[in-house]
Amino acid sequence: MVTAKQSAAAKKNVRKARTAWRGMSDRAHARAQPEGRGRAKPGARSGGSFFHIEVRPRRQFKTFRTQDVGKKAGIERVAGKRGSGSWDTQKWLISKEHAHRVGARLVPDTADARKILKLLGTPPRHLSGDRFKAADRPNVPERAKPTPAMRRAQARNIRKAQTAKRKRASR
Fold first, then answer.
1. Contacts of 131 (CB under 8 A, 6+ apart)
2. Distance between CA 51 and CA 101 in Å, rounded?
3. Closest CA to 122 of 108, 110, 111, 132
4. Residue 37, number of CB atoms within 10 A of its CB
5. Residue 77 · residue 87 · CB < 8 Å
6. What is the pLDDT of residues 131-158, one digit of tens each?
7. What is the rounded CA–CA span in Å between residue 73 and residue 156?
8. pLDDT digits (tens, 9 = 90+) for 93-133
9. The model's pTM
């Protein structure tokens, strides 16, 4: 049986807890939970089957979508959608079958992984577990376009189209 005195004390404790809770930030709310801070970040504990190479911070995006690049379950691109509606790469996921870690470096084992790591603006820097951080490829300003590589690709495509047209005409 609960006495009136115990009931009053309980009400007072609840009131104190509520005022303390209102004064806390969201992070403090998470720390105040008896279960702890929640789950670990993906790739933080080296348990998964992918290396995570973060290119842009997660907080820049509202929603995410994963795309397979190349063969299935090898390399994946995590694209994020900003509040403005534009999409960009948030991180790359490289399968542990396609790369391995040597110290703080990520070493590619396949041509696909080599290509992705070469695309990045800086070599991946190890954070923790399977997580790495790298800069995205540099943004080429419009005044510098077409780049020499773009010109070569364009010339190659034109030659390919011309040969295909000649083959069709000769039939």
1. 41, 43, 44, 51, 52, 54
2. 9
3. 132
4. 9
5. no
6. 999 998 877 888 989 999 999 999 999 9
7. 31
8. 999 999 999 999 999 999 999 999 998 989 999 998 899 99
9. 0.62
